[in-house]
C-alpha cells in the first residue's frame, strides 16, 4: 500500500475506463508533472492496448479489480458507468488509495454515503469531476457574486437561481448503460443536471437543500427519438431497457429560504441545442451564464440599474479548454498538501442526496425532504 504526503514524490495513478471520461483523465495525468499512469483498465481490448501504447502505460487489465488490487498505486481515477463508481471507489479507498471519481459520485445517496465513510475512515481524498465549475466564466461569476468582508456582492442577496442543461437531440446512446436505471441511476438529471446543480450551488455559497418538488418524463427516448448523432459511449449497446427520464424539472428549497429551479433534458422538441444556463436573481443585480455548444466567448451577462435605468453588461471572458485538467490539478494539490479535511466527497454526497430527492419526488408526485 502506498500512502504519502511527500509533496516531491511522483504520484502513481491507475485509470479505470477508456471512454471520454477515462481518456480525459489519462491525458490530464500524462500532461501533468509529478504523476505517472502505471495501470489502465477497460473492456475494449483494442482501445486498451492502443491507449496504453500511445500514453506509455506499462500495465493493462480488462477488469477494475485487477487494477485496484495493485499495491503500487497512490491514486485510482474512475471513468466508468455510474453504478461502478461506489464499488471501485470503496475498494480503492480501503486499500489506501486516493480516488478521483467522475460525476455523479454515485447512483444513490446510500452508495455515496458509503464512499464518503470509506474516505473518512481511511483519511484518503475523494474528489469528484465537477469540471464545468472550473470554466473561466463560472470562476468569473464566482468572484463577482462572492460576498466581500461579510458584505453582499454586487448582486446583493441571491434569492433564486435557474440552472439547466438542455439538449434538442442528445440522448447519449439509446440502449447504452446511460439509458438504464440500474447502470446509470437516472437520465439527464443525474447526468447533465449534476453539473449545473454543482455550478449553481457553488455560486450560491453551498446552501443546504431541504426539500424538492420535481417531475420527470420519458416521452422521446422510450419511443427511440432524440438520440445523439455523434460520439456516444465507447462501451456501446447493452440491450438493457431505456428506463430513465429524458426530461426532468425540479424546484429546490434551500435552508436559508432561497431556491433553485433545476432542469435537465437529453432531448425535447424545442429551440434547445446543447445549452448550459445558470441565472442568478439577486436583490440588487442579476447574472446569467449561457453556453451554447460549449461556447468559449460571450457567455456571461450581468444585470443592474445604472442611474435607475436597467442595464446589461457583457464582460469579455474567454474560456480556455482544460477544465478537467484543472480539477485534477486541484485534486493532486490536495493530496500533496497532506490536509484532506473537507475533501472526502462531502459536497458531492449532498448533491447525490438532492438527485435522490428529485427522483423520489417525481415518483411520488409531491414535494419530498432531502436526507441530511
Ligand atoms: N465530467 C464530464 O464532463 C463527463 C463526460 C462524460 C462522461 N462522464 C462520466 O464518466 C463516466 C464514464 O462515461 P463515459 O462516457 O466515458 O462512458 P463509456 O461507456 O464511454 O466508457 C466506460 C468505460 O468503462 C469501462 N468499464 C465498464 N465496466 C468495467 C469493468 N468492470 N472494469 C473496467 N472497466 C470497465 C468500459 O470498458 C469503458 O471503457 C460516467 O460516470 C459519466 O457520467 C463525465
Automatic annotation (TrEMBL):
Which SUPFAM superfamilies does the protein's record reference?
Glyceraldehyde-3-phosphate dehydrogenase-like, C-terminal domain, NAD(P)-binding Rossmann-fold domains
> Which positions fall inside the GFO/IDH/MocA-like oxidoreductase domain?
151-287
- Is Oxidoreductase one of the keywords UniProt gives this record? yes
InterPro entries tied to this protein = Gfo/Idh/MocA-like_OxRdtase_N, Gfo/Idh/MocA_oxidrdct_glycsds, GFO_IDH_MocA-like_dom, NAD(P)-bd_dom_sf
Tell me if Transit peptide is a UniProt keyword of this record: no
Q: Which UniProt keywords apply?
A: NAD, Oxidoreductase
> Which residue positions does the secretion signal occupy?
none
Query: Which residue ranges does the record assign to the Gfo/Idh/MocA-like oxidoreductase N-terminal domain?
Result: 11-130
Protein name per Swiss-Prot or TrEMBL: Dehydrogenase
* Organism (species): Curtobacterium salicis
Amino acid at each position: 500500500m502506498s500512502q504519502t504526503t511527500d509533496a516531491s514524490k511522483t504520484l502513481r495513478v491507475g485509470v479505470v475506463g477508456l471512454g471520454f471520461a477515462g481518456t480525459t483523465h489519462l491525458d490530464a495525468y500524462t500532461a501533468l508533472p509529478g504523476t505517472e499512469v502505471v495501470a489502465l483498465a477497460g473492456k475494449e481490448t483494442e482501445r486498451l492496448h492502443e491507449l496504453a501504447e500511445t500514453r506509455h502505460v506499462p500495465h493493462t487489465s480488462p477488469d477494475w479489480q485487477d487494477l485496484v488490487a495493485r499495491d503500487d498505486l497512490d491514486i485510482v481515477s474512475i471513468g466508468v458507468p455510474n453504478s461502478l463508481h461506489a464499488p471501485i471507489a470503496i475498494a480503492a479507498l480501503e486499500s489506501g488509495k486516493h480516488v478521483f471519481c467522475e460525476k455523479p459520485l454515485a447512483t444513490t445517496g446510500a452508495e455515496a454515503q458509503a464512499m464518503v465513510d470509506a474516505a473518512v475512515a481511511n483519511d484518503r481524498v475523494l474528489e469528484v469531476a465537477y469540471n464545468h465549475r472550473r470554466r473561466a466564466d463560472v470562476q468569473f461569476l464566482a468572484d463577482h457574486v462572492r460576498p466581500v468582508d461579510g458584505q453582499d456582492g454586487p448582486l446583493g442577496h441571491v434569492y433564486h437561481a435557474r440552472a439547466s442543461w438542455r439538449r434538442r437531440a442528445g440522448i447519449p446512446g439509446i440502449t447504452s448503460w446511460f439509458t438504464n436505471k440500474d447502470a446509470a441511476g437516472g437520465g439527464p438529471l443525474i447526468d447533465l443536471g449534476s453539473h449545473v446543480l454543482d455550478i449553481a450551488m457553488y455560486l450560491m455559497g453551498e446552501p443546504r437543500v431541504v426539500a424538492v418538488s420535481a417531475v420527470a418524463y420519458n416521452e422521446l427516448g422510450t419511443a427511440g427519438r432524440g438520440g445523439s448523432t455523434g460520439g456516444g459511449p465507447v462501451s456501446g449497446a447493452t440491450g438493457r431497457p431505456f428506463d430513465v427520464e429524458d426530461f426532468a424539472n425540479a424546484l429546490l428549497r434551500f435552508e436559508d429560504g432561497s431556491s433553485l429551479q433545476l432542469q435537465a433534458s437529453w432531448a425535447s422538441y424545442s429551440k434547445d441545442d446543447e445549452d448550459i444556463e445558470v441565472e442568478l436573481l439577486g436583490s440588487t443585480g442579476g447574472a446569467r451564464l449561457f453556453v451554447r455548444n460549449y461556447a468559449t466567448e460571450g457567455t456571461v451577462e450581468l444585470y443592474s440599474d445604472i442611474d435607475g435605468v436597467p442595464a446589461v453588461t457583457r464582460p469579455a471572458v474567454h474560456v480556455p479548454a482544460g477544465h478537467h485538467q484543472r480539477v485534477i490539478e486541484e485534486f493532486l494539490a490536495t493530496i500533496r498538501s497532506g490536509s484532506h479535511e473537507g475533501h472526502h466527497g462531502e459536497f458531492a454526497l449532498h448533491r447525490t442526496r438532492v438527485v435522490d430527492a428529485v427522483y423520489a419526488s417525481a415518483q411520488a408526485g409531491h414535494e419530498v425532504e432531502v436526507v441530511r
